Amino acid sequence: MIYNLHFFKITESLALRFCFYNPDNILVYTLIMPRFKPYTPKQNEQLKPSRSQVSAFRECPRCLYMKLRHGIGTPGSPPFLLNSAVDGLLKTEFEIYRENQSPHPLFEENRLNFVPWKSDQERWRSIKYEDESRNMILSGIIDDLWLDRDTNKVVLADYKATSTKKEINIFFTYKWQMDFYHWLLKKVGMDVSSDSYFVYANADRYKERFDGTMHFNMSLKKYAVDDSWVEQTLDKIRAALDDDVAPDPYAECKNCNYVGQVSSIGIEGETTV
Predict the structure, then answer these.
(1) How many CB atoms lie under 10 A from the CB of residue 270?
(2) Distances in whole angstroms, Cα of residue 2 to Cα of each of 20, 28, 31, 115, 124
(3) How far is it, in rounded angstroms, from Cα 250 to Cα 61?
(4) Mean pLDDT of successive 10-residue segments in the chain (273 residues)?
(5) How many CA atoms lie within 13 A of 207 on its CB side?
(6) Residues 6+ away with beta carbon under 8 Å from 130
(7) Beta partners for 195?
(8) Rounded Cα gap, residues 113 and 149, in angstroms
(9) What is d(CA 112, CA 133) in angstroms, rounded to the nearest whole number?
(10) CB-CB neighbours of 143 under 10 Å
């Protein structure tokens, strides 16, 4: 595969365009990466931390500081395309019941008087809130909303894929994700339930044969949200970014520990990529 790299203009800022060509010299993929714009202490421009960045700050304030102040990100990982496929299939499936305003079989199995929530808004999954007091714009893309017919409240739902024989335990980062979205929905004026649900598609990897088909066991996991931490975390993010001294490394942070261990043994030399 041949790849070309060149600079070009997007509005007033430089960006990188990566062009990937197949052996027949046909463009198959283009990746655009805007130039990094560091956060400036006390800046007037609105800060737009993503949901994942808010969670990342709770895991390690130093890592997010290095990302937003200096453009030094933590090592990434390839996207989980299989998980994305499950997510898309579940969205398509729930749309059938949303259109008919009928309960999904999972609701009936769990004795929930729910139907998928229906909105007149075309892009109701994209939530955006302008926090004027903090000079921030907070946003997120939710998987689904359901309507509790008993309380007439909106119920937040998120799709997850896994593969385990053990009891499914909700990762703490998943809980933070739900907490943040719950806070966001309240801020845009929605009457949202304090009970949320994870839809788990649990792949059975112990079948005798694959035959090109993966079997999933579907289940719901209820989670009582706690968004009490969100606003104080947003304040801490702003305070940290306004300080010229980076937060101390977190003892539990794998990235900070790695950097600390490498620095401690005094390795020198150039690294080429």
Answers:
(1) 4
(2) 6, 11, 14, 50, 40
(3) 8
(4) 40 49 57 70 93 95 94 81 90 95 97 94 88 96 96 97 94 97 96 98 91 93 98 97 94 88 71 43
(5) 13
(6) 46, 136, 137
(7) 224
(8) 6
(9) 38
(10) 18
